What does this fold into?
Amino acid sequence: MGISRGNITTNIIKSGLVFNMDPANRASYPRTGTTAIDTVGNKTGTISGATFVSDGQGGFDFDGSDDVITTNLIYSLSSTTTEFSCGCWFKAGTQSSNTLLVSNYNFTPNPFNLYLWSDGTCQGYSRNSSGTSISVGSGDTYDDNEYHNFYYQRDANNTYYTYVDGILKNTDTATLGAITTTNAIRIGKLGHFTSGYFDGIINTVQIYNRALSASEVLHNYNALKGRFGL
It folds into this structure.
């Protein structure tokens, strides 16, 4: 396991990493074609409309209308204590509606979704098969055409966290239990719906099978921030 294939090596945390899509790495995207590759487990993403850009050494530009990357990763939370962390780097201006950075949304259930709301705030959202849900917002706004790193996660104590730029923004607790789904992860769109399209650039997406510590989230932010002029 690792993420050093291709022309770029990153120093993000590797323990528990199950998905890493990073078009700055030619092993993840060779600058052509409609397939992006996860450099950890070799999952793939079909690119529909989104275009490669050189910002941040490589990212995908979404037009807010119909662009999406649909992966073949189906990720469920198998028990009450199953952990996860999902993070991405993005740059966005004002959104015309509530949009999704990373999502496997269905009506129910959906293990995790990373929103960028039309008011510029980030929000993590999860919902179980009974319709019980949790939303953990960032408070501050990030639709400023600057790069930001957003993480949403759950630990074994059923506490949910949002971090932006390596800083803990909010926590909340809810016992949602196991959350299983048949929906694949999509990047830049509200799950399987024909809405919630993101307008901006997404550079990296990482998913872990555990909750990162606060110091690990900060480590990942510091490991990549130089790519974005921070």
